[in-house]
Specification:
Elements lengths: L4 E6 L15 E2 L2 E2 H11 L5 E4 L11 E4 L8 H9 L6 E6 L5 H6 L10 E2 L12 E5 H11 L7 H5 L11 H4 L5 H6 L2 E2 L7 H5 L7 H15 L8 H14 L4 H16 L3 H18 L4
Length: about 290
């Protein structure tokens, strides 16, 4: 008879290198978090404990949420939190940002006799602790022995657990740490409406007449006075932000300009002042590498 199986999915990090919520990034139109949850369930996990802030997932009563305390205290502390909720004999421990979660869990079909876990080694011989399968008893013992895990590296917690270490290609066990990783995996960042290639296929030039028509349509839609949309200045701010920072900074800068102007009273002078302040900020930013 096969041992009962559940999963802990770690989704509580700051995503500092990524610059946005990695768990909400998508590959093949599914969030990274949903892909890992689905892979664990398909591999036989009767329940999935996600440690992190609650995020949108397909409704599933077999998915529960926990949060380590203090928050952002690291993956070891998150595992300690998650294992408290585990009721099965064995448990997957999976990062939410695995590129190929289904392929990873397929390699973790069973824990051999004589050890308490299966942790793959990547092509460089590095243990992939957050792509493993463990006996729950051994994991709880490791948590008890380790003591306070706030800020502790995951190796401190899991290295004492006796594990089998099958070698897997690095591309199978790789995760998504940066935007470049996501691009390589064919994914899309949270909130992104299109990739650079998608944008290359869109219009990059508009005649002054057509642009005026578009601005008029927006003014009419929201009943705005004619002089509240300083087109030249707004386009200048978008250009400055795109040049000094990056193309995605352009719409963000123009949105913030509008937001600040609205807060200050929303006349044309307030809009121009907000644009000028943000253009100056973009110019200063250009030297920050």
């Amino acid at each position: 008879m096969s041992p009962t199986l559940e999963a802990i999915v770690l989704a509580g990090g700051r995503s500092t290198r990524f610059g946005a919520d990695k768990a909400a990034a998508t590959i093949d139109e599914e969030t990274l978090l949903q892909r890992v949850v689905d892979a664990a369930r398909a591999a036989g996990a009767r329940r999935v404990i996600v440690v992190g802030d609650v995020r949108p997932l397909r409704p599933d009563p077999r998915v529960t949420w926990r949060r380590e305390s203090p928050v952002f205290s690291g993956p070891a502390a998150a595992i300690a939190t998650g294992v408290k909720a585990v009721t099965a004999e064995e448990v997957f421990v999976l990062a939410c940002d695995l590129r190929h979660p289904a392929r990873v869990v397929a390699m973790l079909e069973r824990i051999p006799a004589g050890v308490d876990g299966v942790v793959p080694l990547d092509g460089g011989g590095r243990e992939q602790w957050l792509a493993g399968r463990y006996r729950t008893r051994a994991l709880r013992d490791a948590v008890r022995v380790a003591g306070d895990l706030t800020g502790a590296p995951v190796t401190l917690l899991l290295h004492p657990v006796a594990c089998a270490h099958p070698h897997l290609p690095t591309d199978i066990v790789a995760d998504v740490d940066t935007r470049d990783d996501l691009d390589e995996a064919g994914g899309r960042a949270p909130g992104a409406r299109g990739t650079e290639d998608d944008m290359a296929d869109s219009k990059t030039h508009l005649s002054p007449e057509d642009l005026d028509t578009w601005v008029s349509a927006m003014r009419d839609r929201f009943d705005l006075p004619v002089d509240t949309v300083p087109t030249v200045e707004i386009l200048g701010l978008a250009r400055d932000a795109a040049h000094a920072i990056a193309r995605p900074a352009a719409p963000l800068a123009t949105f913030v300009a509008g937001f600040v102007a609205a807060r200050e009273g929303a006349d044309k002078t307030d809009v121009i002042e907000a644009i000028a302040a943000l253009s100056e900020l973009a110019d200063d930013w250009e030297g920050q590498d």
